[in-house]
Amino acid sequence: MFEVDALRLLVVVAETGSFTKAAVRLNYTQSAVSRRIAALEQQAGGPLFDRLPRGVRLNPAGRALHRHATEVLDRLSRAERELAVLHAGHGGLLHTGAFATANISLVPAALRALRHARPDVEVIAVEGPTDALMERLADGALDLAVVSDYPSGLPSADGVTTTVLCEDELFVALPRAHRLAGAGAVDLRELHDEAWLHSAQEAVASRWRFGRSRPDAASRFSRPTGPRRSGRPQGLSTRLLTT
Length: 243
Known about the structure:
Elements: H1 4-16, H2 19-26, H3 30-44, E1 49-52, E2 55-58, H4 60-87, E3 92-98, H5 106-117, E4 121-127, H6 130-139, E5 144-146, E6 171-175, E7 185-187, E8 236-242
Parallel strand pairs: 3-4, 3-5, 7-8
Antiparallel strand pairs: 1-2, 6-8
């Protein structure tokens, strides 16, 4: 089992690139740093640093251990902060998450209101896609999250309940010659067999069929939108989607 102080030393040496600089930062002697790194390397089963003419750098084994060390130290730091505020009789930590668009206006406004009403609560916010946020909720890493059921509904997560915050309109851009371009509103089912353009993250298939998503979720979104300017390329027609 690796000692926390040894992992912390590994991180500092990696950050400074030098046993001497790490010793100064931690108020150790250089010889003490060298001995502790040597003991850590023996425990790890081999060298963790490449010794260079000027300093050191992590080798592949060192980078692997460094990655885990930073995660462990971050979790311990979070635990210390949470225990400190709890023992002080304060509100504790609130771990929140949101997808990118929600962080434009909805989440910042809510956090400002929370800070005004409960200044004793420390908020730790993260951003990520809905599926990852739902997993972190189920794992207990998050207390709450703002998620979106676009485009194909919310993934299931044990012990997680959802509440609709708001509904959002969707617009579809169609060629002017398209059979539905002149309609005031388009039922999404009418586009079930059309070719769709995806962002790079969503392009897992070249076509998306409506039958793969939940019809009753198509008009329910937790995605807020702020004021935006958009240009319409010549030859395209924009229509509101309905379900």
